[in-house]
Design goal:
single chain, about 170 residues, two-stranded antiparallel ribbon, five-stranded parallel β-sheet
């Protein structure tokens, strides 16, 4: 597996026979769909002996409570701020700790939930994963369950709901 977040990286990975993992904090669903199109185009062109797999990694949080989902999206915002500030060279570190530097233009909580994260009730999360499957053509979905400053108990509750209610619906 090679992580790839550019046309060049996806193209190079497929041409070298690697599987591709994309996604992460700060990558909207529309960009993931573009990555899926690039992946399909290069696979069709190269016609590798073994069809490569493609996966997406997303922050995932499952809850029965919409307010709790919105709070989880705020936790994910922390990771997105740190990730993007490091990636784009405007990071800050104070006393050895990464500082979540707001970007010049950040998505709203509703945009985060709709376009950047897989967060919500079991039904919402199922719809979001199916949307990623449809738009990107993934063979694998990698969940990042722990982000921000969530407690272990909260993360484990989300993982349990994911295993019981989401996995059977998206397998």
């Amino acid at each position: 597996w090679i992580t790839a977040q550019s046309e060049y990286a996806i193209d190079s990975a497929v041409r070298r026979g690697f599987d591709v993992l994309t996604g992460g904090f700060g990558v909207p669903i529309e960009r993931l769909a573009e990555f899926g199109d690039i992946f399909k185009r290069v696979v069709d062109e190269v016609k590798p002996a073994r069809p490569p797999r493609v996966g997406v990694q997303r922050a995932v949080y499952v809850t029965k409570d919409v307010a709790d989902a919105r709070a989880a999206a705020e936790e994910a915002r922390w990771n997105m701020r740190v990730t993007l500030s490091l990636r784009n060279n405007y990071e800050r570190v104070e006393n050895g700790n990464a500082v979540p530097v707001p970007g010049k233009s950040e998505p709203t909580i509703d945009e985060l939930i709709d376009r950047y994260l897989v967060v919500g009730t079991p039904d919402t999360v199922i719809r979001q994963i199916n949307r990623v499957k449809e738009l990107v053509g993934i063979t694998h979905f990698n969940c990042s369950f722990w982000f921000g400053d969530m407690t272990q108990a909260r993360v484990l509750r989300s993982m349990e709901l994911f295993a019981k209610e989401v996995m059977p619906a998206v397998e």
